[in-house]
Amino acid sequence: MIIIEQSIILNISKELDLDDLKTDFIKSPLVSDAYLCYNVLTYHSEKFLHVPPLEIYYNRYYYFTRFLYFHTKEFGYDSGLEQMEFKVINEAETFLEINWSELENISNKAKTE
User: Could you please report the per-residue DSSP string of 77-108?
Assistant: First the structure.
């Protein structure tokens, strides 16, 4: 599993003119960048045609976990985001070849970088 570089995703977000999504978290680049990456991967995955759907999912999960981790550190617990986390995790069940250990590794990595 390879994490798509944040700079690549953020460049795509600029092409798509999605910078307005950052306004809520403008004071925290770690939070806003992770959210923007998650959003691009979720709603504009066609920009990554060379990346298999499972890899897109792993990357979405990585960036959402980073977003949640840094958001919680910066702003505190948010039950709505916790519900969203469960939704993202449940999407894994749509992939027959999902590796749950890999998902755990991704979660740990997202919280340490």
Answer: --HHHHHHHHHHHHGGGG-TT--HHHHHHHHH
Q: What is the mean pLDDT of residues 89-113?
A: 93
- pLDDT of 58 strictly over 90: yes
For the chain, domain boundaries = 6-110
pLDDT band at 112 (very low <50, low <70, confident <90, very high): confident
